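User: quick one
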Amino acid sequence: MSWEDTATMMQKHREETYAAVEPAIPEPPKELPLNVTGVPKQLLSENVISITESPPQTLIESLASGKLTSTDVIKAFLQRAGLAGKLVNCITELLPQRAMERAKYLDEYLAENKKPIGPLHGVPISVKEHVGMKGLDLNAGFVSWVGRVAPDDATLLKLLWKAGCIFYARTTEPQALMHLETSNNIYGVTVNPYNTKLTSGGSSGGEGALLGLKGSCMGIGTDIGGSIRSPAANNGLYGLRPTAFRLPTAGWSATMMGAEHIIPVIGPLSTSLEGVKVFMKSVIDQQPWLYEPSLVQLPWKDSSKETLLRKGYDGRRKLCVGVLADDGVVKPHPPILRGINTLIEKMKSNPDIEVVEFPPYKHDEAWRIISPLYFADGAAEEKAAIEASGEPFRPLTNFIIKETKAKELTIPELWQLTKDREDYKAEYSQHWNSVNTTLPGPDSEELVSIEAVDARDKMVDVVLTPTGPGCAPPLECAKYWGYTSQWNLLDYPCMIFPTGLYAGEEDKVEEGYTPRNERDNYNYELYKPETFIDAPISLQLVGRRWEDEKVIEALEFMMEAAKMESS
Amino acid sequence: MSWEDTATMMQKHREETYAAVEPAIPEPPKELPLNVTGVPKQLLSENVISITESPPQTLIESLASGKLTSTDVIKAFLQRAGLAGKLVNCITELLPQRAMERAKYLDEYLAENKKPIGPLHGVPISVKEHVGMKGLDLNAGFVSWVGRVAPDDATLLKLLWKAGCIFYARTTEPQALMHLETSNNIYGVTVNPYNTKLTSGGSSGGEGALLGLKGSCMGIGTDIGGSIRSPAANNGLYGLRPTAFRLPTAGWSATMMGAEHIIPVIGPLSTSLEGVKVFMKSVIDQQPWLYEPSLVQLPWKDSSKETLLRKGYDGRRKLCVGVLADDGVVKPHPPILRGINTLIEKMKSNPDIEVVEFPPYKHDEAWRIISPLYFADGAAEEKAAIEASGEPFRPLTNFIIKETKAKELTIPELWQLTKDREDYKAEYSQHWNSVNTTLPGPDSEELVSIEAVDARDKMVDVVLTPTGPGCAPPLECAKYWGYTSQWNLLDYPCMIFPTGLYAGEEDKVEEGYTPRNERDNYNYELYKPETFIDAPISLQLVGRRWEDEKVIEALEFMMEAAKMESS
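Assistant: Done. Structure below.
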């Protein structure tokens, strides 16, 4: 079969799954505005709108109390997900039969036991395609992998299932899983619902676009360079790149499965911060380290039980937010800087939040280290998987292989880069210790100052920074990974959140700016206010390694202080 | 300078440090028994004997209360360590000047502040040579590396120093740090104080022999295949191979610094279990993850505050001990099996301890995976470091390079082995889940059974197993790593402890045994009761990954039940 025929076959299968949804998925009008986020409201019933626009925590309550049945909820999400698929091409297949059966089971369970089956009883969860589901295709975006069938559910899915959820939709991802956009030769291009000339981001861009249209309230993405965060940011969502080794990854499919130089992670996207929290807690409470021994035995710290923020002398919570607005390599576009400044301004009046500058520390050096580690075999596995079907290389596949100078490393070269990586991580840690304290920074001769514990009270708790050098870029322009890959190298937990602001005509070009380098110039040239109209302005909150819960608690605190809503 | 001249120079320096100790280190008699552990008592003063034979917890109390001064204590240990060096060749240099200055400072601190400086106030700690000390040689056992000077103290040393300890002795290690014995071309061979025809073990064999002679009560070793545990076992000591990423390693020196396929660890040896505990707690309480970002943010769980063992319906602690007496590859010698059986017998009457069989799971497959990962560059770095000075390869260096079939791997080969490693770890975890429960084992198709959490109450807590296929072997015979390297591959915490028994004439050869394979045959042929006279019989207690504290608490509980002393 030619690669084109394989793609046609898969698209046809997708159409069949759409057709099996009841009530039928409405057909979108031929003429659509650039911003399609308002379309579902015009085409779906009030009841479907009301269910699908509820934040996950509200759904959880309604489902647990029986106010809503699992069947009602899943029907609404199937319909809206199908519509989203037709609008922005974010779906690989819907699972109406499995989902409806599961919902029926859950409704019966609740009726019989008078209590929910678990903390996610009836909650619909969408899943990026390369996370395996028993008996379903597992192609990871390669045409030649179509026909590979998952022998079992991924471990994460088993745990979410035990917690009570319903899987109902699988979502698109890019060729080779290594774009900050989403396009492959099986399903084509996924676009941004806020502005369909822009990308939904990637590689979890199917999730991003689907949640952006509220065809899902909770989804699963994966991230080795920004792949949860870019889609979360581009579509105005919450998304967590957890510290590695906190969530189980067994059962996903990708190239380079034995590579551990840069650890890929799996994590949630949601329409609310509460959704991210309940996802993490539901999984980690099940002690996933019993199944996947690479995971760390770190229970989930529940901020409702124990505050992770410092307490001041008066017993009030205290938070020190470092601001890293510009990584010193590529200057962010005006909307992003407006987003940061607006948030700082809103928090300023809160006496329990201290905002300090957090200077970048050699972010260009981080890219020098991480880029050859991405494809340590010279991208041989990706090339083989692409060439096996004769499908063409997507432009961003070519770009990233070239950008990372992919070549097969020798063991001594690999070890040298690994040493560089560890040295850089130690220096960054020292840098973090030194900001806002009197401890020596990484340029000091004394690399380890054992006074750090005593200085903890002054240290920065979290760092506020962009998710990329702009809002969602136009298609095939997402070329600078630094704002996200930086934290993959360091393995710091990162939370993406929407500011509630959108790019607009007011975000003027900075006239007379002299770009620092090629990449900065590319980014500068890319910016025109009219290109980015309506793109959500999202930001990233970064914590130290293992402090996932603290990042979430800090964000809750900041949103409270800034009087922002978190759903 | 020829390599021989370099060695002579280093030995001369060592003699000078011996000569600087006051009061003078006594000269041992020319004629010595095979077992030299009784010699110190004949040559040292009663006061020195009393101090050096106190367990660390007693010393800590006496030092903190001022009952003993730091100066008294360090003088006693310097003298006894020097004597140990002369008896079994376990020292690379003593540090009388630094140590006496430090002791003086601590004594003044206590006098002035009326309280100890930290939890290890005045405690002498000996250190394996390749753990860097500012301004001192850092040769890691290679002649060509003599003259390399540590630019700073290793992070672990900084933290122990802040806790109040005194560094006073540096100890021997083998060429390339990759023997389960201790011999190099700088200082020669370190032997076992219980029987000087046997090895002290390795690679932390200088520590083992020094603590075995009570020339130290707490020391620092390192372990990638058994290097803390073999010396601890061979010399009747307590020794912990912690889970990786719990203690900081920055500042040590070795080949293959960028290799992360099998993680080397650092950890304590002590004359008491309490010593191991206080060492771990004193370091981890200082939040070492602030300095070394590879470390996991896991606070030390204090068993005096929270029991980690299960509670039965009656509120009593419960423990399930799995017994893995024979790994199915190489059968242990009769003294080891006697040790295990004696301990089981002694614990049997305790109703709160359940003893079950823990079958080995493919331990030969573990060696197939780990051995090529040890020298993934084909041992190129080791060969270069040895050849640079012209020193000869020690026999066990040749042996291990051959045994592991060292060759430079390609990236695809490395990834395949890494995948095999992770698969094996997941299977072993499933195996552990299944022993003594009704959960499916690793041979089942269902690799992840999410019912494990519900079965935790029945699961094995710790595994009791040998540390090697026999007690300390004769020199140049320590060739089977399986009983220790198994747990390096899995990264499980392991605690070595003495049974209080010693090998003797009563441990008869098992007549008519048919060895299973070459290695089993080698080990079987090696055994004659008269060869091993007086060798301590030690055992290993293994826990699941991250459960270091639980292993210690379980051992305390078992020793209590068996009415054994833990110091």
